[in-house]
Amino acid sequence: MYSDSKDIIILGIESSCDDTSAAIVRNGYLLSNVMANQDVHRKYGGVVPELASRAHQNNIIPVVDNAVKLAGISLEDISGVAFTRGPGLLGSLLVGTSFAKGMALARDMALIDINHLQAHILAHFIYEKGKEQEIPGFPFLCLLVSGGHTQLVVMKEDMNIKVIGQTIDDAAGEAFDKCAKLMNLPYPGGPEVDKLAKEGDPEAFKFAKPRIKDFDYSFSGLKTSFLYFLRDEMRKDTAFIEDNKKDLCASLQKTIIDILMKKLELAARETGIKEIGIAGGVSANSGLRNAMLEHAGSHGWKVYIPEFRLSTDNAAMIAISGYYKYLKGEFADQSVAPDARWKIQ
Predict the structure, then answer these.
(1) What is the pTM of this model?
(2) What is the domain partition of the chain in residue ranges?
């Protein structure tokens, strides 16, 4: 166990959607990161908020207990407890918020509220002993892309974040999932599209790409284009989707990635930033990761791509965010409440 009073040990709790996670960070180094998934949602084709919050209630104590044990610490060693305040599903957020507030009050720990989106970006700043890794330099341009959000952000040396572009309607992850549902792929659809796309022809079909000014995104037109294309083809051949599923997935994925990368290219050129990364659940997509590496070579970017386990929702990103807020003395009090639509500050 760690008894050095100089150690800053943060417990992170993530419960924004359907995964319950707890992690321990010590002085910026990850000691443990435990996750409990909720398979109950698969048969409904999407997350059911009430079922998610109930599952969080069942999972949160054993997940936290396991994270503490794996880290080799005791509860007395913890300096502060960081939790996802938002954005996310309100019922799910309530479970994590209530647990963190209770623990902080009972153990006289610092209480630290974390923005889930900002935490995805800060996943790039996690150290792990035994692993060689570089953290981004500043200023840092990051494409934050998930099921509910698509944003371009610039992070400065003081860890402050400025949003310079965002979707005006749907997120890229939503486009993946909803188009996957049109093809009757299992939930979650994004990873299924990625898997099938590896065996398909990305040039087989063409879909609409938006023309949006500046650094903003739009994906609603792509979804509509994909829907109408399938409708028209199914009228001619009822087996069209099944016979062309791999090519459809590859073409859809290429279209989404092209849209994402075009605006990232523009932002990098206009800002002059060469330190560039991706974050959020969709950053786990193999096509997007490959596109980032290709652009690094052709544009002289220094690219940062988090490990797969740190790309999707996890508590390690909450804990590291809590660590940096702890260093700044930015704490919450017991009146703090979850905010399902909390924007990046």
Answers:
(1) 0.94
(2) 9-131+311-328, 140-272
